[in-house]
User: Fold SecY-independent transporter protein from Laminaria ephemera.
Amino acid sequence: MNRLKISIYYLQELNYRLAYAIFGTIFLFSITYTYKQGLIFIFLPKGLSHFVSTGLTEIFFTYLQLCTIFSFSFGLGIALTQLYLFLRPGLYDFEAKTTFNLLITALIFYICLYVFIFPIIIKVLWELFSAYSQNFTAIDLTFEPRLQDYLSHLQQLNKALTLSFPCLITLNVIQIYTNKQTWVKYRGIAYITAFSIAAFITPPDVLSQTLIGLPLIIFYEIQLKVWSLYEEYKKQLLIRQPIESYKNSHRDKK
Assistant:
């Protein structure tokens, strides 16, 4: 009977946590939809005067798509936080600290990603692709970007960058619990695997695959370099450490 009461209590607590996450997501959706026009201006490239819309309902559904992406992205963070708070009393101290550090690391990673790196990537890509339309002098063409196409590309870029953190964590865990010599020996296979993962989670274009595959390879090489420096550091400590004599080596023989 006590087990049944405890189970009902935990189910109620889980329902409350899920309700908090759902209400938070709905609240974020309403806020983003209220300020939808100002939200789009954040992602507009510098120097752009207008977008072209070719459908009567295109702008409305584009607004809905943008607000849904924002609300679900932040809502996922709220849901993971509520899940951690729900599981925290039943975790060991080491597990709780590891999970908490992982959440904090993910929060810092995504804040730095979307505050600093994401605007730089948008600016570089816009200048790169718009230069071709401006320098096309064979005939007189006017470049007028479509709003839906632009936001669709931003959505694909957002998906690729969002999945980069789980890929880095998975690579780190695999490197910790496997033999490092194997990673050094089969480095080429690791490169192919990185770009295969990038091809699976990104759109079928070289640029998106490079944005995911190249950071995985760089992180892979950094892990190997840190491991080699750590091994060299341990060897230096063993060389400089004095050899202690056995405590009973000078005892009197009877």
Notes: The chain has a mean pLDDT of 76.
